[in-house]
Each structure stands twice: as C-alpha cells, then as structure tokens.
Amino acid sequence: MTERYQVTIHSQMGPREGLLTLCYQGSYVTGSLELVGYVNTVQGVRAADGALHLFHPIQTVVSTIPCETVLQLQAGSLYGTSTSKSARMQWEGTLIHSESQEESEL
Questions:
Q1: Which residues share a beta bridge with 72?
Q2: Cβ distance 19 to 6 under 8 Å?
Q3: pTM of the predicted structure, to 2 decimals
Q4: Mind giving me the DSSP string for 51-95?
Q5: Contact indicator for 46, 29 with CB cutoff of 8 Å
C-alpha cells in the first residue's frame, strides 16, 4: 500500500511544507520526504501499536540532518516528532492519496 501526506514540519526556521510518501511492505516502510526543494529517502518500521518509526535525512542548502521520526496515524491525519542531534521538530499532516497494491497493478 502507498500513502501520500501533505505535511508541515515546525522547525526553528519556522514551518516548512512538504510531501511524505510511504510504501508499506508488511511492517517495513520505505518512501520519500519532499521538503524545501529536496527529496529525502525514508525508511523504517510500523510498530504493533501502529506508530511509524522512520529514519531519514532532511537536506537543506546548508547541511543534511539525520533524523529519527515517530509518527502517529489517525483517521487520515498524522502527527509526531523528529529528533536530531541539534533539534526537535513537530509534524502534522493530512492524507491526500492512498493506493492499495492491487490498484497500483491495474
């Protein structure tokens, strides 16, 4: 299954709008985070409680920041926190597209 979310990440530099794409294969999650003009690779797992534990960089003009992100998904919305050595960033987002594996094969 693939899901796409419109996200806002609240950092020290202010809110940043982006697009998070998640592809589920069992409990394993891959995807991408499009943010500030860069596409960052996302990978992680979906825990038994439904929480997503993702590992990804956030690339900026100045640097690339490795992050660990924990997201909760609930009724078409997501929220959570990214943690890096230098910052904590709050996430919020809305599901804008969902496609099952069968639909993508048609």
A1: 79
A2: yes
A3: 0.90
A4: -EEEEEEEE-SS-EEEEEEEEEEETTEEEEEEE-SS-EEEEEEEE
A5: yes
